[in-house]
Amino acid sequence: MLSFLEDLKENEEPLQDSDCCGNGCTNCILDNKPRPSNRVLLAGKRNVILSYTKFRLLGREELGSGPNGQLLLLHFAHAADEEDGERPGDTVLDIPPGHHVMLRVGCLLRPYSPYWSDFVAKEFRILVKLQPEGPMSRHLQAVQPDDLLEFRGPIGQYVHDPQPAKCIYIIAQGVAIAPTLPLVRQVLDNEEDMSRLWHLVCARDLQHVYFREEMLEFAQFWNYRSCLHLPHQQCDSSACQEARHCAQQCPQLRDNLRNKETAKVSRLDAAELATHLNPAIPGQRVLIVAGDSSFQKIIAQIGTQSLDVDPANIYML
Ligand SMILES: Cc1cc2nc3c(=O)[nH]c(=O)nc-3n(C[C@H](O)[C@H](O)[C@H](O)COP(=O)(O)OP(=O)(O)OC[C@H]3O[C@@H](n4cnc5c(N)ncnc54)[C@H](O)[C@@H]3O)c2cc1C
């Protein structure tokens, strides 16, 4: 085992200040150095993404565009280097739930959070919201299947221990719902994990809620609850047009919700959050927040009180 670890160290690129993207990420790569997880060490394999490595774009799907930018689903697979002497079976791709990866194009660096990855096939998918005038957005807008892009990771600090069972509140804003999907899956896929999940999703309106199909699949599990917060939801009825947003009892909103979907037409504030406290349910409270830094700060503040979460158990993705 020791020589295997020594080999790993030799293969890893040393981390330098220039590896930070400079965007002030909560989990900066300089404080969260990509390193092999226990899962990888136990498998006796090498995690291909620990140093910058090439991934081939397998698929690209445009999810539509609007005033807030265009959305792309990108699917990548590791492009094995034929000269490195490794057999495909010697390596894996390990991006644990809640971790992100860094994309490097020349000296431009930007973090992205996979919403799906495959350990053995060495593939992952990201949802990208293109920012008008953004340098990486310009690059990603132009990528086509078969193009090669370089990624490094995994970067993050969240680790889930299924024992003892916990009450896990996962709160996501807009496209940042993507990295929360693997967090939900890791609990639901483990039949022995008795943790309960509350998945609270904040978006402008129903049109801006992504991964609804996945949430409906999750809703079949006894330990998963979700709620959509849609403060700008507005149908074409004259009453809702006049109020500039739908009423909580709006029949059109109800018709647009699918079985088991629950929506509130208000922002997620301290009082709303407190309705999910469920004090009778035992278990340590854990809060995970995915969104931009101001959203993370506000939710962490109100979550401490409304959900009775110890600040040590709050994780920002
Ligand atoms: C940990 C982490 C994970 C991330 N994961 C993803 C992901 O999975 N998918 C994804 O699309 N993006 C993700 N991002 C954002 C991503 O890294 C880039 O910032 C984004 O793609 C824009 O890059 P750019 O170079 O085109 O524009 P930038 O130069 O970075 O930004 C251009 C303009 O857009 C604004 N902006 C940038 N990002 C956002 C945002 N999310 N919301 C509102 N305004 C913004 C900037 O403030 C700036 O004004 C993540 C960011 C972090 C910190």
Number of E-type strands: 15
- Give the overall average pLDDT: 91
* CATH C-level name of the largest domain: Mainly Beta
Strand order of the largest sheet: 6-5-9-2-3-8-7
The Cα radius of gyration reads 21 Å
Q: Main beta sheet: strand number and arrangement?
A: 7 strands, antiparallel
- How far is the N terminus from the C terminus? 32 Å
* Number of alpha- plus pi-helical segments: 9
How would you classify the quaternary structure?
single chain
**What is the H level of CATH, i.e. the homologous superfamily of the largest domain?**
Translation factors
Order of helices and strands: HHEEEEEEEEHEEHEHEHHEHEHE
Could you tell me the strand content as a percent range?
Answer: 25-35%
**What structural class is derived from the secondary structure elements?**
alpha/beta
Binding site for FAD: 110-112, 127, 129, 136-137
Protein name: GM22762
Cofactor: FAD
Organism: Drosophila sechellia (Fruit fly)
Topology:
Layout: H1 2-11, H2 38-43, E1 46-47, E2 53-66, E3 69-78, E4 91-92, E5 100-105, E6 108-112, E7 116-118, E8 123-129, H3 135-142, E9 148-155, E10 166-173, H4 180-188, E11 196-202, H5 212-218, E12 224-229, H6 238-243, H7 251-256, E13 263-264, H8 270-274, E14 284-290, H9 293-306, E15 314-316
Parallel strand pairs: 1-4, 10-11, 10-14, 11-12, 12-13, 14-15
Antiparallel strand pairs: 2-3, 2-9, 3-8, 5-6, 5-9, 7-8
This protein binds flavin-adenine dinucleotide.
